[in-house]
Design goal:
Helices cover 41% and strands 21% of the residues. It has one domain: Ribonuclease H-like superfamily/Ribonuclease H (Nucleotidyltransferase, domain 5), CATH 3.30.420.10. Helix 1 (46-60) runs parallel beside helix 2 (76-91). The chain has five helices and five strands, in the order βββαβαβααα. It has helices at 46-60, 76-91, 101-109, 116-126, 148-163, and strands at residues 12-18, 21-29, 32-40, 64-68, 96-99.
């Protein structure tokens, strides 16, 4: 990482851990996506998550960090990752906001989205650069697309913007 994104007022870094690593999004407004990607972490090592997250904080210089709060549904590994992210953000004096799945669903009901697939479709319609990135799943028996954690991160950031 050689460049940095210019610091903007209320730049949000939203992170959504998954079984492959984590999806993340940098947003400067509810529909203003600056950057998005998946961070793959091949073997689960909390140290690797911490290092990756610390590098992201230095590179993107967000003013707020947003993570999911619905921890009762998550396994020990994901809980540990979210705790690590939260601790590292607080060490760097960044506010951390947590939103549960119900907060996200509540927001997207305003846009007539009833499930994750409809949320992904809405985000793709509002943010054109994502239209070719598959996310969610169309049928209940299908596994989620690789890029779904990025859409989850974007939905977290959007929830933050609309609630603040």
């Amino acid at each position: 990482m050689t460049q940095t994104i210019p610091h903007k007022k209320k730049t949000v870094l939203a992170i959504f851990p998954s079984n492959k690593g984590f999806g993340y999004a940098i947003m400067s407004g509810p529909m203003k996506l600056e950057y998005h990607s998946m961070m793959l972490i091949k073997k689960y090592k909390l140290k690797d998550y911490k290092e990756s997250f610390s590098e992201m904080l230095s590179f993107f210089k967000p003013s707020v960090v947003v993570v999911e709060n619905r921890l009762e549904r998550k396994g020990k590994r994901v809980k540990a990752v979210i705790d690590t992210i939260t601790k590292e953000a607080k060490i760097q004096h960044l506010p951390v906001f947590k939103y549960c799945r119900d907060d996200i669903k509540s927001l997207f009901q305003n846009f007539d989205c009833k499930n994750k697939f409809e949320i992904v479709s809405f985000i793709q319609a509002e943010i054109p650069e994502l239209k070719n990135r598959k996310g969610g799943r169309e049928k209940p028996w299908e596994s989620e697309a690789y890029y779904t954690p990025v859409y989850d991160a974007i939905s977290l950031a959007m929830t933050h913007y609309y609630k603040h």
